[in-house]
């Protein structure tokens, strides 16, 4: 089969969780004998191919790309208007589509790629499968969050601003893959896809790491960790506030990731008398090896954070916030713990319970051994290929 993926930021350096999943599946499809290409938007020139995958680069056609300084609100509004309504890349997309002649186009991270890819595929009668990694189709910012408040449904402004996007989706997308049940529910409630669009849920993929059951011993210190962007929406401050009420000599918290210097200094000041270490950028697998438990304290509706299954596949279970796709990744409590991130006592109670009964940690880690196959690259690739075939059978 000839498969053409489409996404932003795939060239010399694959950026973002969605793009990483694309790269893993693309390479796996090549190993199975399929003809695979990736159409992507990036400023950096790339080789014609990488790992057997044809690379078709589109230069950005907007007023800026990855600026070092935050643009003004007026410039950002123009950028989003062009991204949602422009077709400056349509001609180049059409040429690539005709040259590569795919059996199916699989679109992914769309912000910056524009809806023109869906329109051009519809004109050329090429079926499109789209994976929903974020809220791009429903929300102008792709995040469905205003300030410190999550949007439970698209606001009136975003509904109007994304109307043209939805028209292109209804016209071009024949099959949709959601990365979590939460994303499926939110998008179906908003009418993001035509009623006859074939749907499924397939999680992201990750190469199978070495597996080691975490089993802390009674009376010992729990090694807790957070890894990811250090920003307000990720709930790091709320996590620290909850852990302040845990006996301070019974745990250690390692924080890996980057954020603004001002915010990190604020967090350090709050945690100055706590057993907390800020490590900056870390290599994930080495970071996981130091932990008994991972905490994912997101305040926003995180679609399906990769850290949960990357850690879980290595035998490291997570305590996750009841937000977005996190509960599903934790097996709704079967292979992790779920708590309300705005209820300070919830996380405190879970950690105190695990200190009293650390065998729970080992039990959740063992549950991940049974669930690993949901996220391995071969399994996710096979599920994806079967979905392509189902879509083509109906096209």
Note the topology:
Elements: E1 2-8, H1 17-31, E2 35-41, E3 49-50, E4 53-58, H2 73-85, H3 90-100, E5 104-107, H4 116-123, E6 128-132, E7 145-146, E8 149-150, H5 156-161, H6 163-172, E9 173-178, H7 181-189, E10 198-201, E11 222-227, H8 236-243, E12 251-256, H9 261-270, E13 276-280, H10 284-288, E14 293-296, H11 306-312, E15 318-321, H12 326-329, E16 336-339, H13 344-356, H14 359-371, H15 377-394
Parallel strand pairs: 1-2, 1-5, 2-4, 5-6, 6-9, 9-10, 11-12, 11-14, 12-13, 14-15, 15-16
Antiparallel strand pairs: 3-4, 7-8
How would you portray this structure in words?
This protein has 395 residues and is α/β, with parallel strands linked by helices. The protein folds into two domains: 2-205 and 376-394, 3-Layer(aba) Sandwich (Rossmann fold), CATH 3.40.50.2000; 222-374, Rossmann fold (3-Layer(aba) Sandwich). It is built from 15 helices and 16 strands. The strands form three sheets. The protein has an eight-stranded mixed beta sheet with strand order 3-4-2-1-5-6-9-10, with helices on both faces. The chain has a six-stranded parallel beta sheet with strand order 13-12-11-14-15-16, sandwiched between helices. The protein has a two-stranded antiparallel sheet with strand order 7-8. Helix 4 links the parallel strand 5 (104-107) and strand 6 (128-132). Helix 1 packs across helix 15 and helix 8 (236-243) crosses helix 13 (344-356). The model has no long low-confidence stretch (mean pLDDT 94).
């Amino acid at each position: 089969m000839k498969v053409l993926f489409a996404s932003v930021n795939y060239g010399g350096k694959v950026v973002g969780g969605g793009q990483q999943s694309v790269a893993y599946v693309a390479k796996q499809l090549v190993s199975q004998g399929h003809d695979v290409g990736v159409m992507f938007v990036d400023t950096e020139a790339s080789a014609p191919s990488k790992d057997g995958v044809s690379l078709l680069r589109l230069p950005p056609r907007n007023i800026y790309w990855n600026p070092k300084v935050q643009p003004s609100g007026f410039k950002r509004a123009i950028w989003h208007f062009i991204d949602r309504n422009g077709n400056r890349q349509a001609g180049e997309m059409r040429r690539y589509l005709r040259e590569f002649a795919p059996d199916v186009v699989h679109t992914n991270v769309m912000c910056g790629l524009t809806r023109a890819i869906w329109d051009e595929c519809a004109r050329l009668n090429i079926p499109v499968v789209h994976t929903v990694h974020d809220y791009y189709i429903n929300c102008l910012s792709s995040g469905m969050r205003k300030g410190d408040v999550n949007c439970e449904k698209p606001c009136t402004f975003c509904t109007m601003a994304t109307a043209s996007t939805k028209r292109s989706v209804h016209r071009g997308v024949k099959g949709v893959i959601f990365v979590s049940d939460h994303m499926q529910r939110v998008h179906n409630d908003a009418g993001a896809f035509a009623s006859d669009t074939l749907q499924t849920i397939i999680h992201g993929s990750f190469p199978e790491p070495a597996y080691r059951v975490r089993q802390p011993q009674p009376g010992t210190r729990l090694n807790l960790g957070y890894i990811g962007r250090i920003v307000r929406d990720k709930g790091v401050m709320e996590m620290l506030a909850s852990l302040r009420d845990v006996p301070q000599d019974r745990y250690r918290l390692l924080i890996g990731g980057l954020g603004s210097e001002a915010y990190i200094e604020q967090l350090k000041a709050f945690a100055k008398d706590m057993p907390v270490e800020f490590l900056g950028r870390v290599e994930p697998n080495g970071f996981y090896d130091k932990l008994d438990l991972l905490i994912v304290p997101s305040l926003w509706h995180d679609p399906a954070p990769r850290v949960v299954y990357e850690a879980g596949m290595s035998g490291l279970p997570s305590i996750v916030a009841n937000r977005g796709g996190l509960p599903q990744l934790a097996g709704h409590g079967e292979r992790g713990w779920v708590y309300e991130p705005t209820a300070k006592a919830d996380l405190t109670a879970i950690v105190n319970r695990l200190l009293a009964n650390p065998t729970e940690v080992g039990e959740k880690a063992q549950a991940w051994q049974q669930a690993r196959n949901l996220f391995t690259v071969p399994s996710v690739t096979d599920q994806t290929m079967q979905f392509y075939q189902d879509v083509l059978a109906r096209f």
